[in-house]
Input
Amino acid sequence: MQLERLLLHLKLDGWCVVEDVIPANQIKHVRQSVEAAVAEHRNPAAPSGIGHLPGMINFDQSFAPFLADENFLALVGAMLGHHPRISFTTGTINYPGNERGGWHADWPFNQNNAGHIPAPYPDATVHLTT
Output
């Protein structure tokens, strides 16, 4: 069963890929729609090598139907229970030639954020990132 394989991959490696969440014939449309929203609404003071748009779903919903993909939700449900919540959506695009930033942890693990899970982290699944 695919779900069992994905769960084992997460347990052993800390990541997995849920295949075909966005059908191949729709990837180009979603990519272009997200790129356009980021270009239109990004912070003009942000570094030029990166496009970053917090609250992405407020500006573009092209990817929203795929958040309800049956295989994706089965995995999320197995990891977090029956009532998961989407905490945020962010459009982040690293443009060609963008220099790599420093290593850091994203929320909720970044110790520099006011709201974070204190390190050392518990051995429990509390957050999934796509």
